[in-house]
Structures are given as structure tokens and as C-alpha cells.
Design a protein that fits this description.
Number of helices: 8
Strand content: 25-35%
Radius of gyration: 25 Å
Number of domains: 6
Largest sheet: 8 strands, antiparallel
Number of strands: 38
CATH architecture of the largest domain: Sandwich
């Protein structure tokens, strides 16, 4: 037969990319099917059970069951889904690494209760699933199983198929600043991108020259690598061949891309467009396809200044409305300015007698180490179930949205609402410190090496830090360094 239903409840055609997925079902009898083709056989789906009745073989999504007077109904979808699940790897150094399951986001009124069974049982109701929800998973295989009540089979199949993508032999996560989203095992890796590889098989040495290892961390029997694949036109074909052999994964040339790497967005609109405060007028953008251009809808055009090796400074005189960074190669980055002063602080707040900070902010690291009572305020009491203090869940659960702890706290982790550690780098440099970067020694030396840390002492401008990060394969540290500069403007750093 020509058609099947995948784990997401969508029709897939035999011979297409989606035909090689897992958990495929017959759209007529709902039994399991698999994809077949060969030199003398056209692509088609076949039943595991060997069933070949007429209704299954002649099914077409546009006409239902061809050859029958009654059309077969479309696969049932219990409620409109507005968000897709994903596996996310977080590595907020020096915090511990973590694996999270981002659950589907449903519209209001979803009737089923979803249960994630891992080291324990965690229940999510329809009200919880109407917003972005994460569940932390232990690093093991298999990761978890999914149950729904009343039964929602399409959602169970979709989540089980996602969890099966994580394998001990190696799972690749496309990296952003400090986290990555799991790539489909059939998706190729791209030159010019950073990835996390979580595996029980260690990398063999030596590494290809086209792979820059940024970080290596061991957790029990697992190893987490963070690496960058170079994208140089002169060596592209040779690099692809070497990397495919070394990584045992298909590799392709990088697509045209442009994005803003600093500062991070303050929030995202429902359509996925990032939002920045209209008090922010300077950005650092990265482009792999030439000097970007900028088009704005409600403000004057931005000034673009090249910095080094694909990095550019973008300055706005009066930021407002919506803007688009674009290149002639076709890359686009849409973002908006908004009055976000009322959003600060948001989410989980840390309070001492002197200061208040959001757990997602840079200042949170300094408040966690406070010697005295630290108040933690959460937006909803239910969030206490997800908050880890010093790596342990709070028991008994606090009453109310505010709870006081005796500081200092070593670590506090509220999942998607942020995390902070008293072991983190202190961004406030004391007056008697020899250099602005003296508090970064452990982080920089661990990730980029002692030589890179020594070279960092002489950096006094953002341009010099960009050059330093490029020369010492320390791009992953760049957002941290640039954020530290924001706190050092009165110490001769610009």
C-alpha cells in the first residue's frame, strides 16, 4: 500500500523521507506497518502481520478507502496541538548537565492526564500541558515510558518514538548557547554548527582538523562532548569526507545562517519570534554568508560594524517595533523590540535584604552565595515540585509561593525557569583584583585551556574578546564574556 500514518498522526507516502520513521501504522486497520522497496520492487508499506485486505491496500487520504462505498475516517486527533515535544540537553557550566523532555503543548481543555515513568512517576494534567512544560530525565537507556489516561494513543506513540531516538551509541544535539535539541537520527550534521554528542562510546583520537572539541565531560558511563565543525570553502569536500568517517553520520555543507548571539532574548512571542527590550540598542550578530543588512519597520536603519571572522556589531539609535537581519544568500533573522521593563524580574525570584534578581539573570549567581536568609519566590506553588536545591528536591513542599532558605546555597535549579550556583563565576570584580577576568580562571582554563586564560588578561574591548574567542576555540564562552563586560564598563573596559 502507498500510505501510512506516522507517530504524529500525519500521512506519509511510500518512498518519501518520513517513510523510514518508527511506529508507522496502517491508516485503515491501524495495525503496525513497515517500509519496503528494492531494485525490482516499488516503494510501499507492508503489514507486520502479513494482512493484505483490499481496504488497506487501496487506502488514499483524499478519498478514504477506495473501492468501497464508505470512506474510512481520518485518524482521530483528540485536541489541536500547538507545540511539539523535544529532547533537550542542557549544559550550563559550571552547573551539572541535564536531559529534559519538553512535553507537547495543548490548547485549553485537553482531557487526558499524561504520565512520564522514569525513576518515578510524574503526572501532568491538561491544565499543566496548556503551557510549556519540561520533565527532567535521568541519563540512562531507555529514558522513560509514556502513559495517558484516558488513552491518547497518537500522543503515546509520538513521545515513545522521540524517546527511542536517544541511543547509547550516540545522540547528537544541535547546540545553542548552553543547550541543544536532539537531532533526528536520519538528519545530517551541518558544517559550521556546534553539537553536543551524548554517548557511551568515547571519541577515538586524533580528532580530524575540521572538528574543534570545545568541551568533554564524563558522567558515569556516559560522555558528553561539545564540538564545532568548521566550514571553510577551500576544504569543504575533504572535511565532509573525514567527518563522515569519524562521526559515522552524514555531514553536509552549512546552510546560510544569521543570528544574534548576544544579548540573549528576554522572551519569545507565541509565533517564535524573539523579543528584546527597547532599552537594548547594541547587539552582536553572527553570519556565515557575508555582511548582513538590516530592515526595520518602526525605527531608523541599524549601523552594521564588522568585528572579526563572521561577527558583526549592530547598533540602533532608537530601537522599536520589528527588525530583520538578512543576507543576500537568503539567511533571515526576525526579532522585535518591546517594553519589557514590566517583565523584570519574572519567573522565579531570589531575594536578599539588599537585592532581588530573576533566576534567569546574571545577578542570580551572586545572590545564591549570600550568607544569610534567601527568599525564593515562585509564580505557582506547583513549581516547588520541580525545584532542586543543592541537587535535592525540597521535602516537605513549601506552603505558599515564597519560601526562605538559610544561605549560602550551593545550587538552585528550577528547570525552564532558570538555575544558579554559588560555584559560578562572580561577575563583580573586586577593586584589588589584578584583572577583570581573574574570576573566570577555572571556567576558561577548563574549557579553553590555561594559555587561553592568560591571553584573556589583555582583552579590554568587545572586539578583542571576539578575536580571543576565535583564536582559542572558545566561542562557547563568548556570551559569558560579553555579559561580564556589561558589569565592567566603569573599569576601563568598553
Amino acid at each position: 500500500m502507498d500510505w501510512a500514518i506516522n507517530a504524529a498522526g500525519d500521512h506519509v507516502l511510500a518512498g518519501s523521507h518520513g517513510a523510514y520513521g518508527y511506529s508507522l501504522r496502517c491508516p485503515a486497520c491501524k495495525a503496525g506497518v513497515y517500509h519496503r522497496q528494492g531494485a525490482n520492487r516499488r516503494p510501499h508499506f507492508a503489514h507486520y502481520s502479513g494482512n493484505s485486505n483490499r481496504a488497506c491496500e487501496l487506502y488514499h487520504p483524499g478519498s478514504g478507502c477506495l473501492g468501497s462505498t464508505t470512506a474510512w475516517p481520518k485518524p482521530e486527533v483528540m485536541a489541536p496541538r500547538t507545540g511539539r515535544p523535544a529532547l533537550i540537553w542542557r549544559d550550563g557550566f559550571p552547573f551539572s548537565t541535564s536531559l529534559y523532555l519538553r512535553l507537547p503543548k495543548f490548547t485549553q481543555g485537553y482531557a487526558s492526564t499524561l504520565t512520564v515513568v522514569s525513576s518515578g512517576r510524574r503526572l501532568f494534567t491538561g491544565a499543566e500541558l496548556s503551557r510549556l512544560t519540561f520533565e527532567r530525565l535521568p541519563l540512562r537507556h531507555p529514558l522513560a515510558t509514556i502513559e495517558t489516561s484516558p488513552r491518547d494513543l497518537p500522543i503515546e506513540i509520538q513521545l515513545e518514538a522521540l524517546l527511542q531516538e536517544f541511543t547509547p551509541s550516540g545522540s547528537y544535539f544541535r547546540a545553542s548557547t548552553s543547550e541543544g535539541i536532539l537531532e533526528d537520527r536520519l538528519s545530517p550534521l551541518e558544517l559550521g554548527e556546534e553539537y553536543f554528542l551524548i554517548t557511551q562510546r568515547r571519541f577515538e583520537k586524533p580528532f580530524p582538523a575540521s572538528l574543534s572539541l570545545l568541551q568533554e565531560r564524563k558522567e558515569l558511563s556516559w560522555t558528553a562532548y561539545r564540538f564545532h565543525l568548521r566550514d571553510e570553502p577551500n576544504t569543504r569536500d575533504e572535511d565532509i569526507s573525514q567527518l563522515e568517517c569519524f562521526l559515522e553520520r552524514r555531514v553536509i555543507a552549512g546552510k546560510s545562517k544569521i543570528d544574534i548571539i548576544w544579548p540573549p532574548p528576554r522572551r519569545y512571542y507565541p509565533d517564535g519570534v524573539p523579543a528584546y527590550s527597547n532599552q537594548t540598542s547594541q547587539f552582536v550578530a553572527r553570519s556565515n554568508s557575508g555582511i548582513p543588512n538590516c530592515v526595520t519597520l518602526e525605527t531608523s536603519d541599524a549601523q552594521i560594524t564588522p568585528l572579526c571572522d563572521g561577527y558583526f556589531q549592530v547598533d540602533f539609535e532608537r530601537p522599536a517595533g520589528e527588525a530583520i537581519l538578512w543576507t543576500e544568500a537568503g539567511a533571515r533573522y526576525y526579532f522585535r523590540f518591546d517594553d519589557l521593563r514590566s517583565d523584570n524580574p519574572t519567573g522565579v525570584q531570589l531575594r536578599t535584604p539588599e537585592r532581588t534578581a530573576d533566576l534567569t539573570s546574571i545577578e542570580a549567581a551572586t545572590l545564591v552565595g549570600y550568607h544569610g536568609a534567601i527568599e525564593v519566590k515562585v509564580p505557582t506553588e506547583q513549581l516547588w515540585r520541580n525545584v532542586l536545591v543543592n541537587g535535592v528536591q525540597i521535602r516537605p513542599l513549601p506552603n505558599g509561593k515564597v519560601h526562605s532558605f538559610d544561605g549560602p546555597i550551593q545550587t538552585i535549579d528550577a528547570g525552564a525557569f532558570g538555575a544558579a550556583s554559588s560555584l559560578a563565576v562572580d561577575f563583580v570584580v573586586e577593586a584589588n583584583d589584578a584583572s577583570w577576568c581573574s574570576r573566570f580562571e577555572r571556567v576558561v582554563s577548563t574549557i579553553a585551556g590555561p594559555t587561553a586564560f592568560e591571553k584573556l588578561h589583555s582583552a579590554r574591548t568587545k572586539h578583542q574578546v571576539l578575536r580571543w574567542a576565535t583564536d582559542h576555540n572558545a566561542i562557547s564562552l563568548l556570551p559569558l564574556m560579553l555579559s561580564a563586560f556589561s558589569a565592567e564598563v566603569d573599569r576601563g573596559i568598553s
